[in-house]
Specification:
Blueprint (H helix, E strand, L loop, with lengths): L19 H20 L5 H8 L3 H28 L2 H20 L4 H29 L2 H44 L1 H15 L15 H19 L11 H19 L15 H31 L4 H29 L1 H25 L4 H4 L1 H23 L7 H33 L4 H30 L1
């Protein structure tokens, strides 16, 4: 793996390396919980709205508030783990996430639920960067590629399986209380994961004497810039054109953040060391993640709406229709983690081409066979796209973080995951606007709206492919 020869091999004494695969399993289970909660709530919204009498604004915050809080904490959470103890930060995030899930399931009104979702997002943002940090710390060479393959499989599977699991829980526990179990299901999993994390995750390695400095100015500038960047895309109920003024404000804040980090880095360890972006694999990987997630995440959003709103599918059947993508993604991510050592960037190229072909095939299937059985018509195209997705997400993580020093693994992973969250927000906003505009303008032509929305999502994936190919050519 590039860069791995310059890193000292972790010793077995107290490093946790002898339990590395058990530790990885605990990390992936916890990470799966937090990533699942981004998508699983979608199918529960009708039940939640009915039971808690939620407003449209409240529903929007229950969805986007989680993703917003999650994205704001990723980089500071990663830096906390790098500077102090990844195990402590991981376990703190896991405990808080479990308690916030209990609070969300017990919600009695809109404000209660939104507050619990925000707390869930903050806790998830603390936890998730530690997973990549532990992989960097505990694995090297081919093993690291396989570990990132499992992480990529978890990311792809959790994103796609959320609607299916949500539909199953509502089917089992009923419309009135099923939505509460969407949150309660995290409690036993979180409790067991906490015990296993304490037993298997390594403690902090030896650090230079002196108290680490945390860069509060950097935290505020990055948080403000990320907030201004995400809010206009996440708040679809906010129709005033003035919301787009937040975008130039975001650019100013992020430019100030970059300048401050360079200055702060001369005398201390900044929140994000800007020299990371001087590495072409890292900079290219972050940009690729942003563009790809803009297309990849939005697909499930409009496909679920199309099936339930246009074809009369239940939440469970809509979730089942997305399963081919989830299965293809989970399986190929594991394979991609093993093959990335041998094929490198070519594997990502193959994955992106397969995603483009699969999505184009799904659009054609809907155009030719739109109707109640359209879920069957899209099985093969979605399976192809899912296989491609697994060959993008997992190898891109490995290649992007391959040259990052272990001491900065958490913050570097936080930046990568923040790019994924920003891409998801932008993609859902862009694809969703086209989808809803077409539904309204064409008298609820759900099939046409889905095809046009899918074309926008496909455009983001094509941009990711072009970026990837140009980046590889320039490197050559």
């Amino acid at each position: 793996m590039p860069g791995s020869r310059d890193e000292p091999r972790p010793a077995d004494d107290g490093s946790g390396r002898e339990n590395r695969w058990q530790a990885l399993t605990v990390c992936l289970v916890a990470g799966f919980m937090t990533l699942l909660d981004i998508s699983i709530v979608n199918v529960a919204l009708p039940s939640i709205r009915s039971d808690l009498h939620m407003s449209e604004s409240g529903m929007q915050w229950a969805l986007s508030g989680y993703a917003l809080a999650f994205g704001l904490v990723l980089v500071p959470g990663g830096r906390l783990g790098d500077a102090y103890s990844r195990r402590v930060v991981f376990m703190t995030g896991l405990a808080l996430f479990t308690m916030a899930s209990a609070a969300a399931g017990a919600a009695r009104n809109e404000t209660w639920l939104v507050a619990a979702r925000l707390a869930q997002g903050l806790a998830g943002g603390l936890l998730v960067p530690q997973v990549s940090g532990f992989i960097q710390q505990l694995f090297q060479g081919a093993e690291r590629g396989r570990a990132f393959g499992r992480l990529g499989s978890t990311i792809g599977f959790s994103t796609a399986v959320g609607p299916l699991l949500g539909g199953l829980l509502i089917e089992v526990f009923g419309q009135e209380n099923g939505w509460r179990w969407v949150f309660y299901v995290n409690l036993p999993v979180g409790a067991v994961a906490l015990v296993m994390a304490y037993r298997t995750l390594p403690g902090p390695s030896a650090r230079p004497p002196g108290r680490p400095r945390f860069d509060p100015v950097g935290v505020l500038l990055l948080g403000g810039g990320t907030l201004c960047l995400l809010l206009p895309f996440m708040q679809q109920q906010w129709h005033a054109a003035a919301k787009w003024l937040l975008l130039p404000a975001a650019l100013v804040l992020l430019a100030a953040f970059a300048a401050w980090e360079r200055r702060y880095g001369r005398s201390g360890e900044p929140l994000v060391r800007m020299s990371l972006f001087e590495s072409r694999p890292y900079a290219l990987g972050v940009l690729l993640a942003l563009l790809y997630f803009a297309g990849f995440t939005a697909i499930f959003f409009i496909f679920s709406l199309y099936l339930q709103g246009g074809q009369g599918y239940s939440a469970l059947l809509a979730g089942l229709s997305i399963t081919p993508f989830a299965l293809g993604s989970a399986g190929s991510a594991l394979v991609g983690g093993r093959l990335v050592q041998h094929f490198g960037r070519r594997l990502v190229t193959v994955g992106l081409v397969l995603v483009v072909a699969g999505l184009a095939g799904a659009a054609l299937a809907v155009h030719l066979w739109s109707g109640h059985h359209v879920g069957w018509a899209t099985v093969v195209p979605l399976l192809v796209a899912g296989i491609g997705s697994g060959l993008v997400v997992s190898p891109n993580q490995t290649l992007t973080l391959g040259e990052v020093p272990v001491v900065r693994a958490g913050s570097a992973a936080g930046v990568l995951q923040t790019a994924q969250r920003i891409g998801s927000a932008v993609g859902i906003a862009a694809v969703g606007s086209v989808f809803f505009a077409e539904v309204a303008a064409r008298h609820e032509d759900w099939s046409g709206a889905f095809q046009r929305g899918l074309a926008v999502a496909l455009g983001f994936v094509v941009l990711a492919l072009i970026t990837h190919l140009l980046g590889g050519r320039n490197k050559a």
